[in-house]
Amino acid sequence: MREEVADVLAPLGLRLSQAKTGIVHMNEAFDFLGFRILWRRKRGGNKWYVYTLIADRPMWSLKDKIRALTHRLSQQSLRNVLIRLNQIMRDWSGFRDRWPQDGAQVLGKNFASG
């Protein structure tokens, strides 16, 4: 499988890093660029879909930032806390918007046609 992937990447001037790259079947969920990619059937149907969710690590990071900023014993003014929360949430929404809603656009239509 790795050889086939390497053959596809070579004409693009890319190479597969053996140390960093894991190849999994679409039946297995995997993390990619901060997102969790799932290939699942929609409830009540037989059609398969690619779902893109926020991965656990970025979600934990967001929660940690908010907890640190909104600690009960914080000496920061409410104004400063709200400004910083607004910045964090704006950054977060930008992170989410950088990924296409349809994961098949990135992963290829053939993966979504199970």
- Count of separate DSSP helical elements: 5
N- and C-termini, Cα separation: 19 Å
The ordered string of helix (H) and strand (E) elements is HEEEHHHH
- What is the percentage of strand-forming residues? 5-15%
Name the strands of the widest sheet in spatial order: 1-2-3
The quaternary state of the protein chains shown equals single chain
Helix content: 40-55%
The low-pLDDT segments are 103-114
Radius of gyration of CA atoms, rounded to a whole number: 19 Å
Beta strand count: 3
Shape: elongated
Report what the structure shows.
The chain is of the alpha+beta class and 114 residues long. The chain contains 5 helices and 3 strands; from the N terminus they run αβββαααα. The protein has a 3-stranded antiparallel beta sheet. A hairpin with a 2-residue loop joins strand 1 (30-32) and strand 2 (35-41).
Summarize the structure.
By secondary structure, the chain is α+β, with helices and mostly antiparallel strands.
List the helices and strands and how they pair.
Layout: H1 2-9, E1 30-32, E2 35-41, E3 48-54, H2 56-69, H3 78-97, H4 104-107, H5 109-112
Antiparallel strand pairs: 1-2, 2-3
Please describe the structure with a list of short key phrases separated by commas or semicolons.
114 residues, alpha+beta, 3-stranded antiparallel sheet, 5 helices, 44% helix, elongated, disordered C terminus
